[in-house]
Fold this sequence. Notes:
five-stranded antiparallel sheet
Amino acid sequence: MHKEQEGRWIKFDFEQARVKHLLFKTRLRSILYGADLDAAPVISHYDCAVGQWIYGHALSAYANIPEMHKLEQVHTTLHTVARKLVDLYKTGKVAEARVGLDEMELISDELVELLSTVETLVHESGQVEFRKPAASDPLVISPEELEELQQLNRELDRRLKEQSRDIFEAKERFELIAKATHDAVWDWNLLTNKMWWNEGFKELFGYAQEEIYPTIDSWYIGLHPEDREWVIQSIHDVIDKGGSQWLAEYRFGRKDGSYARVLDRGYILHNQDGKPYRMLGSMQDITDRKKTEELLIQKDKNFRNIINTAPVAMLIFKGEDLIFDTVNQSMLALIDKTSEIIGKPLLNVLPELKGQPVIDIFRRVYKTGEPYFDYERLVPLMRDTLMEERYFKLAFTPVQENGGNVGIMVVATEVTEQVLARMKVEESNKEFKFVTDFMPQIIWSTKADGYHEFYNKRWYDYTGLTYEQSKDTGWNAVLHPDDQEKAWEVWRHSLKTGDPYEIEYRFKRFDGQYRWFLGRALPLKDDGGNIYKWYGTCTDIDDQKKNTDLLEERVVERTRDLESQKSLLDNILTNSSNGISVSEMIRDEEGRVYDARTILANESAVKYVGIPKDIYLNQRARDLDPDIFSSPYGRACLNTLASGEPTIIQHHLGAINKWLELTISRMDENHLIHIFTDVTVNKQSQLELERTIQELKRSNANLEDFAYAASHDLKEPIRKIRTFSERLKNNLGVRLLEKDQHYFQRMEKATERMQLLINDLLEFSHTSNGNTNFEEINLDKKVALVLEDLEVIVAEKNARVIVGPLPVITGHRRQIQQVFQNLITNALKFSRPDIRPEIHITSSVVKGEDIQGDDLHNVSPEKLYNLLKVSDNGIGFEQAYADKIFKMFQRLHGKAEYEGTGIGLAIVRKVIENHKGFIKAESEPGQGATFKIFLPIE
């Protein structure tokens, strides 16, 4: 070292560079530990004292020493790192800035080492300079700088002590938290690979302190062999890719050899260059939670398996939009859908439910969490493109997760047949009530459990109670208090054992008086011997009880009445005027019906078929009639058996020459019920009526032939009358008086009218022949031809005829021409004298269902019709006469006023009927008339 004191300046050497660098580093550390930034700014590597020495002198003076250039590069790097640390501190990243000091210390150490190396090389090369510092020499140490350095060190020491105290408190707090938690907290130094664990690691996994490695290996070893590779790979992927957070779920070994399921979270710290240097995290033992989750998953799987294999229709909706989540096969079959509906909203799958009450019920259950049950809910469903109304027994139960409703479970059982059967039973009950209301006894019935559901009118008349007061156990209200215990004891015994019920007790009448009744009831059982109903009677025996002498006789009489009433239905069957029988089908091995036998028949049935009862019940159907199943009656039986639809048919018994009308109903797949009566008299009348109708048809045909022939034969005499009257008139010439001239005129007009009438009769006869020589007709051309024929009269009337586009139809050419000729002539004839006649002919196509009219019974709703309208502005007529004008010889006006025979419109209607159409007339007096012709479009 060569030093020289001159005033306040110290001669430069390498030691000064080291001191200047120490001052720079101390200032930087002071900044990062709370010094005023403005008071100690970080200058550039060119402007600092060491930098000015390097660039102003050292680089040129020692250019031959390679380490000098390395020194310049390290010095530049040091300033770059210092600026980054200050920038981090300014942006609030204090911890990262202070961590960066460790890296800067390494660079500082390298800088100091290079200064010493260059200094040694300079001495060895003999390049040491001895000179006074000039005013421009920056690298001199002043006393003020030394004093500043001491002050910075003292201040920095104070701040470090304060911050050390804060760090100690934070560390102490962290250690307390680490001890308090049940998780295994870890701290991994990524630079040194050191690992720290809290006490939770020992507690969770059972290891002693000496068994825990201070490095990351303690974690690697504990990983399950099957998880080790992917877990290590995952954490290093996050670290290597600059991630800040890591999460994994894996198995970790315990001291006892078992494995815990852990959820591990880690957070990575990076320095100012983004390089990871530390990672902290915690391991949470979730073994019990995983077992619970797996148990819940298994329970859910089992639950869904139960749904899928359940014999009843079940499904689960998820969410407020009712998304199909789980649907079993029974439900898919019920709604006629496939598993493709899963994941779709209910209203997309079953749009027919839109607006139905069941949707509001679903949403109410989802919103409130209250279950819903219904035993007979009517629900419309689309099946095979047809809307069907079906009845269901429904149960809607909310599905809950984490205390909230997430869906609805639906259990549905179709009860359509049961409901319809019940409705039929109720209808039968109405008939039963109608019969029992006329009986003097009280008649009642109960369900199998004793619930009283029916009383006849006699009960209500006697007690004055209503049904609501009487149902179930309401009958107890009128029972005498002294009789109640015994009555209930006997009734419960009958309900339990099925024994007949019989007791004497007193009932209070509506006026408060008690009378004695004999109560009896018998159980009604199904084929399996199970009771499903009780029928009972209460007979007033008060008089017998009071009259001891007549008691036995009256009891016997009442008993006889009760037995008679009990067998009422059997008596109805026995005494019915209708024949009633039940037949049983006999099937082959493949289940096909090949024969039948009658197993039940009442006396009327035996009488109607005319076969002795023992033969009727013992012989098979083919023995009695080998061709029975090929007959209409046999085919009807097989059809009803297959379809279940009742059939009504009339059948002729040739052996006894009787006609029977039979109603065939299916009891089950092997039994048919036949209800029939003798309709021989009615059938004979019907056949006689059919023969009469045929005779009338032949008579009408003869009359039409006669009218045609008579009209044709009358034309010749009329022609001769006109010819000879004309000759006579010409021969007499001027000798005729004025009165004689008038007679001739009247005779000529009479013959003209007769000629016209005969022609119309011929036309009508021609249309009545029903000529079927049909062909295509262009109505535009046909109407044009008619107007040519009527050209003179149209001109005389100065009439205006407007014809719209008309269709091409199939029909009889001449008859169709008659229709338009008669209608146009009719419109010209009945025109108003003060108004120019206008006739409009139009056409359109209409559907049968759009045609209105009380008299149109044969209109097919689905059929299309050509509607032809002929409208005029003539004198019109009252609508009440709209049908009368189409009848033969019907006139609404006198002959003197309007000429005509009254046959023209009758011809029009007959032609239209020949073409399977119909015609209507609409009019008001003075408002003209419209004739509408409807011809079917084939």
